[in-house]
Amino acid sequence: MSKQINVALIGNPNTGKTSVFNALTGLNQKVGNYPGITVEKKEGICKLPRGVKAHIIDLPGTYSLNASSLDENVVIELLLNKNDKDFPDIAVVVSDVENLKRNLLLFTQIKDLEIPTLLVINMADRMRYKGISLDIEYLEEQLQTKIALISTRKNEGIDYLKSLITNFKDLSITPCLNASEIDTEYFDSLRKAFPNQLLYKLWLVITQDVNFGKTTRNEIEAVANFKTKSKADLKRLQQKETIKRYQFINNVLKKGQTIDVSQAKDLRTKLDRVLTHKVWGYLIFVIILLTIFQAIYDWSSVPMDFIDGIFASLSEWTKDMLPKGAFTNLLAEGIIPGLGGIVIFIPQIAFLFLFIAILEESGYMSRVVFLMDRIMRRFGLSGKSVVPLISGTACAIPAIMATRNIESWKERLITILVTPFTTCSARLPVYLIIIALVIPEGRVLGLSYQALTLMLLYLIGFGTAVFSAYLLNKILKIKSKTFFVVEMPNYKLPLFKNVVLTVIEKTKSFVFGAGKIILAISIVLWFLASYGPGDEFNDAENIVTIANSSENLTEEELQQKIASHKLEHSFIGITGRAIEPAIRPLGYDWKIGIAIVSSFAAREVFVGTLATIYSVGNDDEDTIKNRMAGEVNPILGGPLFTFASGISLLLFYAFAMQCMSTLAIVKKETNSWKWPTLQLVIMTAIAYITALIAFQFLK
Q1: Which of 685, 683, 653, 665 is nearest to 426 (CA)?
Q2: Is the pLDDT of residue 635 over 80?
Q3: Regarding beta strands 447-448 and 443-444, do their DSSP bridges make them parallel or antiparallel, or are they unpaired?
Q4: Are 505 and 29 in contact (CB under 8 A)?
Q5: What is the SS3 string spanning 359-375?
Q6: Residue 11 to residue 63: CA distance in whole angstroms
Q7: What is the distance of C-alpha 379 from the center of its chain?
Q8: pLDDT band of 518, cuts 50, 70, 90
Q9: Rounded to a whole number, what is the largest CA-CA distance in the chain?
Q10: Please, which residues have CB within 8 angstroms of residue 488's CB and are 6 or more apart in sequence?
Q11: How many CB atoms sit inside 10 A of residue 651's CB?
């Protein structure tokens, strides 16, 4: 049996840590969340020489062991807890050849924890362009470790890195410097109070809000012969420690690193001047976004139609090939469409994360975040919130998954909660049929009334999201540090392997995470639509046949009327009738009630449900529109769909959650049913009140 060792990949953001992780693990990786928290956990397996297997954990990016966010706490708590199953046998600190000085601060801190620590200097292929040369032998001697100089882009140095990880027991665990010299008396008393504990671990527990086995900060400070310090004094000591470490690093790099400035080719400054400009920066960003979302609509429509057709054909084939009965119906009308409802999102999710991965890999996304932060900060959001908010116009599911790079939990939670207000592509079928029905044709300034209405709905959605964020920022009493630190990495061509692995992992995360919940709710909705109490449902065929015996209906038209009758008297139809008194003030009847209830599976189900209710043989919008136009209001007389009821319905769908897939992904990302439940209740209330006011005012 081969031995397995734990390897922790640690480093500052943008040092290429993910590239190193991908180079070591390839497709042998999985992504989840740490138990009880929403920080992403990436782990994978790497085969090493001599039959050794390495379990590699890609820890969240951190600048130092002085934690300022939830994900940085994860790093510290793992390194302090020897009883954790993931506690590393070796820590691999990944640094960037251009930012070695800053990266070495974290390296020297980890060395103080007496864990075998290896230094990886990544992006070695850029050394010549930047005029950098390194004395590796001298650096190894001073830092008391082994150094792997690698280039993940050119796949150089990876085998040497693997051999160093295999021989981790040969690495020195001696600290680089004696950090306790910043206050000898204080650290001596700490050493005497806890003679069996590692000094630097105790120091981290005192200065950080982290756990260290059974030893807590309060227990340390309660020891009788140990003199405690105030928070201000501890903060000053932390600053002294950082200065001392940088003095050591500067002395090492004076001899170990040479930079010839004359050789450095600096295109970056010129590009930054344009891309972060207060006018051109925003204009370029808008153009890039328009291009991306147009591409998402265009590229994903073909595979989505294909998937839709495949699952529809599979349902028909199941009905034809299997014996008639409840199990066949469950497969054909519940499970297969439920799976289709998951798989059909894959093209949009994959394309969206493809573009996000390219923007991140190239270094452009950091410029966008910097650019947007000054605007978003006023509404309680982060600059990083702009990506999910705009991604929501394609689909809220990948947009909510894209919030993972927002460090502040409060800002991330607010972004998750408000993103579903942005108009996603699933709302379009609903908007188009209602707009065509109630908005008159005509133009103003060359733009049609119908196009202006659609644009207005998009603006209402985005405006509500931003305004809701502002209110939530005032209401939510969540303590969350909001330091805005964004790294401006160098521009580089995206690594194809990294982009592909990102797209695969994010897509898998959706399919296996939210997919289980979507499938379960699809089956429940199928049951409610397929069964009903009493003879009106069970004897629907005879009732409809006798009622229409005088009409010359084709077999297809008759079956459609039977399906419509069954739906009306099914459990979901009874629900529609039950909620009719509540929705009548909005201008709707029980048929629209059924469509609203069933469209909770996905908003676009609205049109398909109407096709069944109005006995239309297909989802052709013109046919449904004609049937809807002929509907009579049972209370007021006259047409049911007027300008007032149409606007009411448009506003209802603009604000209502109406998407179980989104609720499923919110539950997954927040690790709680509390937030999606609040989201559903509040958004439904806003939708109802707005639709009510609109109808009562306009009628």
Answers
A1: 653
A2: no
A3: antiparallel
A4: yes
A5: HHHHCHHHHHHHHHHHH
A6: 7
A7: 20
A8: low
A9: 103
A10: 272, 363, 366, 367, 370
A11: 23
The pLDDT mean for the chain works out to 81
CB 59 within 8 A of CB 9: yes
Q: Locate 156 and state its tokens.
A: 């150089």
d(CA 409, CA 476): 11
Q: Rg (Cα) of the chain, in Å, rounded?
A: 30
Residue 329 has pLDDT above 90, yes or no: no
pTM score over 0.70: no
User: Between the CA of residue 531 and those of 537, 547, 565, 566, what are the distances in Å?
Assistant: 8, 22, 12, 8
Taking residue 632's Cβ as centre, other Cβ atoms within 10 Å add up to 11
Q: How far apart are CA 65 and CA 445, in angstroms?
A: 60
Which residues, 6 or more positions from 218, have their beta carbon under 8 angstroms from its beta carbon?
Answer: none
Residue type, 216: T
Q: How far, in Å, are 437, 561, 614 from residue 626 at the CA level?
A: 8, 17, 10
CB 496 within 8 A of CB 651: no
Let me know if 154 is exposed, middle or buried by CB neighbors in 10 A (0-12, 13-18, 19+): exposed
DSSP 485: -
Q: Where are the alpha helices (DSSP H) in 570-640?
A: 571-578, 580-583, 590-598, 605-613, 621-629
For 574, phi then psi, to 5°, come to: -65, -40
**Digit-coded pLDDT (tens) for 369-406:** 778 777 888 888 877 787 788 777 767 887 887 787 67
The structure tokens listed for 429 are: 């079928």
* Confidence class for position 94, pLDDT limits 50, 70, 90: very high
Check: CB of residue 599 under 8 Å from CB of residue 606. yes
Residue 664 tokens, joined: 């499923």
Q: Compute the distance between CA of residue 595 and CA of residue 474 in angstroms, rounded to an integer.
A: 36
For residue 122, which of 254, 252, 17 has the smallest C-alpha distance? 17
Distance CA 41, CA 30 (A): 8
**Residue of 624, 629, 625 lying closest to 612 (CA atoms):** 624
**CA–CA separation, 194 vs 212, rounded Å?**
13
Measured between alpha carbons, how far is 132 from 97 in angstroms, rounded to an integer?
8
Opening angle at CA 483, ends 479 and 484, nearest 5: 135
Please give the DSSP secondary-structure letter assigned to residue 334: I
| Measured distance CA(189)–CA(231) in Å, rounded | 18
What is the pLDDT confidence band of residue 617, given thresholds at 50, 70 and 90? very low
Distance CA 659, CA 681 (A): 13
Q: How far apart are CA 319 and CA 315, in angstroms?
A: 6
